[in-house]
Amino acid sequence: MWSEEELKMQAILFGGDEMNYLYLFLSALVFLLLCTNIYAEAPYRFRVRKGVHHDVTRPYQNGNWEWPVDEAFIRAFDGLYIPAVIAKPDGNENRRPVIVLLFAGTRGLEQAYRSLTEFRGMVAERLLKEGFTVCIPGYRVEMDDTYIDSDFPAILDHHDVMAVLEYLKRRDDIDPDRIGLYGVSHGGELICKIISETNLAGAVAVEPANVDFLNYPRMGRGSEIDEREPLKDSQYDRAFAMERVSKIQTPVVILNRTNDHLTGIFKTTYLLMQEAGVPSWEWEYEHEMHGFSWGPRGKEDGAYKPDAIQLDALKKTVEFFQAHVMNKSE
After folding, report:
1. pLDDT tens digits for 269-321?
2. Are residues 27 and 73 in the same domain?
3. Residue (of 297, 294, 277, 276) closest to 285 by Cα position
């Protein structure tokens, strides 16, 4: 039974009706159940509205680019829109294979266009000539260690790329079973994160900066990290790293620039993949330029002029994608 003071408080707050407490309790319970159901359906650690796309795709005309291009604004899993450019090869084949190119950092649609026609142009042009569609997406930039924090309540940048992959699967000119990834540095780490959560036809991770993917503690070091030899078990969370690596089924190349300050991390990633039985290969090169395999950042006299090492890396990349993406067996 209510005390005199409690009854007075009820009279002030609810007009003296004890049933209002029950209504308030039931309303709160319904709200909590609805929230629980929303989160239970989410495929990741955040709220997702399934089946909501509302993508915007339109052709883009560029007089200095010989291939047709679409620009797209793709709905991310939390409702934000991600920019992407999609360059299409010649011919009328209905369902083409596609290679998604990932670079470290993003400045939106303008940067995607510049990457397509300048900074990453040699790779993009070669893939187009081989009959691949090429996609360069943007994605949000995340803070260090957010991937390591399993309770971090937000969408991460590799999830944005995964939303782009879902968009590509919805296109009627893309073969959803023939999607590959190619990325350098943080783009390489994005690849490792993505293929540990979904299966694709093939991937080439160039100098993958897998600091967060391997749960390697930064301890405030940031760019001062320097690992030239494979990591010792005591240097990173090997159990968590192996748990992620063991989920990978996508054929993947780790392209290791052996004079990079993170070459030990590249090597560790490959060794873990081998231990886990992942279909994986390691290519080793020595080159003075980080991200050398993109080729020169621009053309000279109307043409790219790569060195012999860049040409070899590109040749092997194309051969890998032809075998695992273009000619993927059912």
Report:
1. 999 999 999 999 999 999 999 999 999 988 888 889 999 999 999 999 999 99
2. no
3. 294
